[in-house]
Fold this protein.
Amino acid sequence: MAFRWSKGGLACALALLSTQALALGKCERLVATGSPDAPPYSWQDPQDPKHLIGANVDLLRQVAAELGVKVEVLYAGKREQALEEVRSGRMDLLLDTPMQVTQLTSLDYIHPALQLNEYLVWTRHDATLVFDGPADLAQYRGALSEKARLTPAFDTFAKAQLKLESAQNLTQAFQKLVLGQVDYVLAGRYSGMAMAQSLGVGSDLIARGLPVDRPGLYLAVSHNSACNDSWLRGQLAKKLTELPISGASEAVLQRNVERWKAQMQASQGAPKQ
């Protein structure tokens, strides 16, 4: 006896097939971008300047591979240019953006954060600076890279309470510290580690105490991306939740600290430590 579909049953089946096809077909390929100057999380590949490399790139590739989605991580210019490429939908995904309320009309932030960038107080190894919490820094002179991305709350506190000199980049900030022009530098745990090692001052500088700030670096999908659907967002959130449990994030970060250190030494012609 032949099975017959009711009109309602057939419509439901077609709708289900259509939804599955979209879920499987829309996101066969993602195009992502991010900051070109934020090692060890993301930076422009000196061997292939059209692409980005770094810990966040590696983690995104791992997540995408587990989802069966191809991903290409392209250089799109400076941070603001990269943001605009994603907002417009010309690219699908930002891989290292801080949470910004003003961008919620353009981007869907995937929770949890891909990374938490822990900002520490870096001093010279022999410094007498007394530090038990952020308020203790008010009596000292510090430096902060212009490229730093703090949480809004800590940024407000720092501008009101701390004596922070702006440096063009982390290299300049650490040079000020080594020369004694400032008492401390606020820098990320891993970016500070990589910079100190690449400058050959790893034994001269030390990170002190607990983090003073922990801004999240998020994956964010453009509202204008053809790949932005509930399936992708849900799967990305699931995989990001699993990453810390697996220990993958820490291993990838350490690997990229060494990767960037080697590139810096090669570009400067410095001997390996």
Residues 248-268 form the longest helix (21 residues). Helices lie at 7-25, 55-67, 79-88, 152-161, 170-178, 189-198, 230-246, 248-268. Residues 42 and 102 are 23 Å apart (CA to CA).
